[in-house]
Amino acid sequence: MLPFLILLFLVLALGVLLCEWRRGGASIRPRELVFLCLSGAAMTLFAALRGESVGADYSMYEEYFLSVREGGAAFVLSSANEYRVEWGYSLLNYLVSLVSGDVRVFMAVVAVLIVGLTCVFIARHSPSWWLSVFVFLTFGSYLNSLCFLRQSIAIAIFLFAVPFLKEKRLLPYLGIVVLAASFHKALFIMAALYFIAHIPVSWKSLTVYGVLTALVLIFSWPLFHFVTRFVYQYYATEDGLYYMEGRDWQTAFVPVVTMLVIVCLRGYLLRRDPNNIVLVNFSIYAGLLYLMTCKHFLFQRFGMLFFTTAILIIPEFLVSLDADRGRLAELQSAPASVKKGRTRKQAIARREERIAQLSRKYSYRYAVFGLVCVGLLCYVWMLVQDRTLLLPYVTFFRP
């Protein structure tokens, strides 16, 4: 576990020292860029150098890569290719096999794609780069990327569709969804989100979500048998039924708490940007799907699609709590502009009220501290559980 903890504390130390310390200064962006490059490089190298025993699905992806290397384009286009529908993933394997037949090169390329795309998205759309990277690392997305390669590449691509969804731009949104689905076909379900992601959050919509969740849980087995007659037949096999087992409540804890916090305090997000309603709804979908994971693990695979956007939702929320520190200092140091009478008292009262409003926003600091604590606990808990067989971490240099 030690290598994972070293990676975590490296990212945390870089984030605090380069981005959070004296964050009100004018030179924050160059420091954030240094942080993003260093932390991104560390996570990429960590994933690229891992040995074949790190990650439950490593051997499966290795076998497929070797099949593509041996069979070439004929295999990629043949019915023997189990990922023929996911043409993006097949093409990636084929292109890498033309350069090198070593599966370690392929894993390095995958690491660059997942971490690189995520960091580019963070740089373009996150209001706090270090908070986004911290959430990506500690809330499970990065650890999952060491095992679920296809899905993680697909999610990294889909992230770029979220801004188009917020802006209600259908064609570019669907184009990115199709590209993401070429790596994992489950991403096709995101096409339907275009029509529901902007639904206002109210007691009516929450009631509908709750009823639908209850119905799915009640009729989960009939629905499972019906769906697997046509697609995902593997899940109906003896091995596949593992995914229909339930997880403990700790699996759902962080996504559900995130959902509750975002829903209850969504006003901060919506005042910052009304289109953040998309992010609020994503947090609801993720929380409910992880809640259903307590009955069937299968729902977690879909919950991951939504919960990865926490790298944008949580920083947006925390930054919305932050104070205008320059304005606060100005108000605290300036005397009332009116010197006499009732008008002066009114001016002082207004100034004190404004100071109180800005001071309350210093809850940002406490919220960041709380996030760090929760992230540390979540990260360690996932490593201790080790459900995707990431431990012990070894490099491919180890004999």
Break the fold down into its secondary structure elements and pairings:
Blueprint: H1 2-20, H2 28-48, H3 58-77, H4 87-99, H5 103-125, H6 129-138, H7 141-145, H8 149-158, H9 162-166, H10 170-181, H11 203-218, H12 220-227, H13 249-264, H14 266-272, H15 277-292, H16 298-307, H17 310-321, H18 325-333, H19 341-360, H20 363-385
Helix pairs in contact: 1-2, 1-6, 2-5, 3-4, 5-8, 6-17, 6-20, 8-10, 13-15, 14-17, 15-16, 17-20, 18-19
Description:
The chain is an all-alpha fold and 399 residues long. The protein contains 20 helices and no strands. It has helices at residues 2-20, 28-48, 58-77, 87-99, 103-125, 129-138, 141-145, 149-158, 162-166, 170-181, 203-218, 220-227, 249-264, 266-272, 277-292, 298-307, 310-321, 325-333, 341-360, 363-385. Helix 5 (103-125) runs parallel beside helix 8 (149-158).
The profile of the biggest β sheet is: none
- Principal-axes geometry comes out as globular
Relative strand content: under 5%
Radius of gyration: 24 Å
The low-confidence parts are: 337-341
Can you write the helix and strand succession as a string? Answer: HHHHHHHHHHHHHHHHHHHH
How is this structure best summarized?
It is built from 20 helices and no strands. It has 399 residues and is an all-alpha fold.
Note the main attributes of this structure.
399 residues
